[in-house]
Write a structure and sequence with these properties.
By secondary structure, the protein is mostly helical. The chain has 6 helices and no strands. This is Hemerythrin-like domain-containing protein.
Length: 177
């Protein structure tokens, strides 16, 4: 985020920028997971799945609850995105069961990339425009969570690699802590 100070309340535009930047990081991580040596791909896939887990946890803790009543009443937008996220979790769990580099693994990775890309595109068109309706407290919570994820991805990741459900749980605990 382009905030001058993490204690400053981010604008809706800054939050949109942070979300789209993380979506870009995810796209780049998918690319890395498909290129290079087999060992490089394995390391990149673990990084990708940790990034997805942290991003997912940040959304569950901050974005979805904040947007649940954007515009003065219940909004179903988050329901669609959450259903997509549940499908993505199933794809990831299946991916983690497969032998890295196998045909099935590569197909599952391609399906996961397609699902995540669809989800990010839908999120950018349906949820991000609602950020302008959020109050300062909600924007601050979202901004801090997104900043924490971006910082963790760039440096020493506090989340150990494991099953996706465990990584999301650990990410949620870390972000809420």
């Amino acid at each position: 985020m382009d905030q001058k100070n993490i204690d400053d309340v981010p604008t809706a535009i800054e939050i949109v920028g942070a979300v789209t930047a993380q979506h870009g990081m995810i796209r780049a991580a998918f690319h890395a997971a498909k290129t290079g040596s087999e060992k490089d791909q394995e390391v990149a896939t673990e990084r990708l799945l940790r990034l997805l887990a942290m991003h997912e946890a940040a959304e569950q803790l901050t974005v979805h609850p904040s947007l649940a009543h954007a515009g003065g009443g219940p909004v179903g937008v988050g329901d669609d995105r959450m259903a997509e996220e549940r499908q993505t979790v199933q794809l990831i769990e299946r991916l983690q069961e497969l032998d890295h580099g196998s045909y099935e693994y590569n197909m599952q990775l391609a399906l996961l990339e397609e699902a995540v890309t669809h989800h990010a595109t839908a999120e950018e068109s349906s949820e991000l425009p609602l950020f302008g309706e959020l109050g300062a407290t909600e924007r601050m919570r979202i901004g801090q969570a997104l900043h924490a994820v971006a910082t963790a991805v760039e440096g020493e990741c506090p989340i150990e690699y494991g099953t996706f459900s465990t990584m999301v749980r650990d990410s949620t605990t870390w972000l809420a802590g």
